[in-house]
Amino acid sequence: MTAVPLTDQTPVALGPLPAGAALLPASATVTPSMLATGPVAVAARLPAGAGGVVVAGNVAIAVSPASMEELVGDLTVAVSPQMGPDGDGRTYVDLRFTDASGNPVTTFSSPIALTLRCSEADLRQVNGEVLRLAPVYVIDAESPAIENPLGFPAGTFVLFPPANVAPDGDAATVTVTTHALGSAVTLIPTPIRWVQTAGDDTPEFSGYDDAAIVFGLKPASSYLLVVEPQILGRLLVLDPATGNYAYVNASDVMPA
């Protein structure tokens, strides 16, 4: 990694920095050579109005000065590796931002950038095809409305908007720009795929929970396009026959 001189505009570590971690001024450019093969825990304070870059193993968070314009005082960034759903070494980190008073910060006046270098376990899921990996965030109690406009329950995996995602197959990285963040983030095989209904009269629901109503029935072998990861026991799908979105029970469909 190229050495970057420390200044009063550089983030300050709030504990010992582990191997694979680095704190850089906001002017630094994140490159694949800066990123390790797995996440590490880092906590750092970004100076008021200056921003900075926090490298936590294979994860880098870049906060520009413009992103902090609406904050009073410094910003604390904490990165905590989490055990993935399969416990297999996939990239899965909890990201938390707090202001000078210790209050959660989940929205930013200008986008922040999150860069993830795919781990070996991430790449195994997709046979090394980085473009088949999709970054997602996990809804929790602190997720702002802009992150969860459909009111998904806590624990739901939600895709970042594709327009805000820039994968690099050669570097095995995925970069996301976002105005809102403050929860767990991971990489999953893209859920956008075709399924078929397994039997006759497969119900299409208005929502993902028991309060949803049935507004249509599909015959066996109907094609549906899955557009989001599973939410509770249902999948959000696009019905090509109607052009409408609906939810179906995951148990009622099979891979096409």
Oligomerization state of this entry? single chain
SS field, number of helical segments: 1
Mass-distribution shape: elongated
Order of helices and strands: EEEEEEEEHEEEEEEEEEEEE
The CATH architecture term of the largest domain is Sandwich
Q: What helical percentage do the residues reach?
A: under 10%
Just give the CATH class of the largest domain. Answer: Mainly Beta
- CATH fold call of the largest domain: Chondroitinase Ac, Chain A, domain 3
Strand order within the widest sheet? 1-3-6-7-13-9-10
- End-to-end Cα distance, whole Å, is 45 Å
The total tally of domains equals: 2
The percent range for strand residues is 35-45%
Extract low-pLDDT stretches: 1-6
Please count the beta strands (DSSP E, at least 2 residues each). 20
Q: Rounded to an integer, what's the Rg over CA atoms?
A: 20 Å
Mean pLDDT: 92
Structural class: mainly beta
Q: Please summarize the sheet with the most strands.
A: 7 strands, antiparallel
Task: Write the SSE topology.
Layout: E1 12-13, E2 21-24, E3 42-46, E4 52-56, E5 59-63, E6 75-81, E7 92-98, E8 107-117, H1 120-125, E9 133-138, E10 157-159, E11 165-168, E12 173-180, E13 184-189, E14 193-197, E15 202-205, E16 214-218, E17 223-226, E18 234-239, E19 244-249, E20 253-255
Antiparallel strand pairs: 1-3, 2-4, 3-6, 4-5, 5-8, 6-7, 7-13, 8-12, 9-10, 9-13, 11-12, 14-17, 14-20, 15-16, 17-18, 18-19
